[in-house]
Design a protein that fits this description.
- The chain is mostly helical.
- Helix content is about 50%, strand content about 0%.
- The chain contains three helices and no strands.
- It starts with a helix and ends in a 23-residue tail after the last helix.
Protein backbone atom coordinates (compact mmCIF):
# COMPACT_ATOMS: atom_id res chain seq x y z
CA UNK A 1 0.00 0.00 0.00
CA UNK A 2 2.84 2.38 0.86
CA UNK A 3 4.45 1.70 -2.52
CA UNK A 4 1.21 2.60 -4.31
CA UNK A 5 0.79 5.76 -2.24
CA UNK A 6 4.37 6.80 -3.04
CA UNK A 7 3.60 6.55 -6.78
CA UNK A 8 1.00 9.31 -6.50
CA UNK A 9 1.56 12.98 -7.45
CA UNK A 10 3.03 15.27 -4.78
CA UNK A 11 -0.22 17.22 -4.37
CA UNK A 12 -2.13 14.03 -3.57
CA UNK A 13 0.58 12.92 -1.15
CA UNK A 14 0.17 16.20 0.76
CA UNK A 15 -3.59 15.61 0.99
CA UNK A 16 -3.02 12.07 2.26
CA UNK A 17 -0.52 13.39 4.81
CA UNK A 18 -2.97 16.05 6.03
CA UNK A 19 -5.74 13.48 6.30
CA UNK A 20 -3.52 11.09 8.26
CA UNK A 21 -2.51 13.92 10.62
CA UNK A 22 -6.22 14.71 11.10
CA UNK A 23 -6.98 11.08 11.97
CA UNK A 24 -4.10 10.88 14.45
CA UNK A 25 -5.16 14.15 16.09
CA UNK A 26 -8.77 13.00 16.31
CA UNK A 27 -7.67 9.70 17.86
CA UNK A 28 -5.57 11.54 20.46
CA UNK A 29 -8.48 13.82 21.39
CA UNK A 30 -10.89 10.92 21.78
CA UNK A 31 -8.51 9.05 24.04
CA UNK A 32 -7.35 12.13 25.93
CA UNK A 33 -10.91 12.63 27.13
CA UNK A 34 -10.53 9.40 29.12
CA UNK A 35 -7.12 10.29 30.59
CA UNK A 36 -5.82 12.89 33.01
CA UNK A 37 -4.71 16.15 31.40
CA UNK A 38 -1.04 16.39 30.59
CA UNK A 39 1.10 17.07 33.71
CA UNK A 40 -2.06 17.17 35.87
CA UNK A 41 -0.42 15.67 38.93
CA UNK A 42 2.71 17.81 38.55
CA UNK A 43 0.52 20.92 38.74
CA UNK A 44 -1.79 19.76 41.52
CA UNK A 45 0.30 17.61 43.89
CA UNK A 46 0.90 19.58 47.08
CA UNK A 47 -1.42 22.41 46.05
CA UNK A 48 -2.73 22.68 49.64
CA UNK A 49 0.63 22.14 51.32
CA UNK A 50 0.82 24.16 54.52
CA UNK A 51 -2.83 25.22 54.39
CA UNK A 52 -5.13 23.76 57.03
CA UNK A 53 -8.21 22.06 55.68
CA UNK A 54 -11.36 23.12 57.51
CA UNK A 55 -14.61 21.22 57.47
CA UNK A 56 -17.69 23.46 57.69
CA UNK A 57 -20.42 22.55 60.17
CA UNK A 58 -22.56 19.65 58.98
CA UNK A 59 -26.09 20.56 57.91
CA UNK A 60 -29.07 18.74 59.40
CA UNK A 61 -30.42 15.73 57.54
CA UNK A 62 -33.28 16.31 55.14
CA UNK A 63 -36.57 15.07 56.54
CA UNK A 64 -38.35 12.84 54.03
CA UNK A 65 -41.79 11.28 54.05
CA UNK A 66 -42.07 7.62 54.99
CA UNK A 67 -43.03 5.22 52.23
Amino acid sequence: MIQEINKQPEALLREVQQFMAFLVDQHRREHAANDWPERYFDRTAGAFAGEPLERPPQLPFEQRKEW
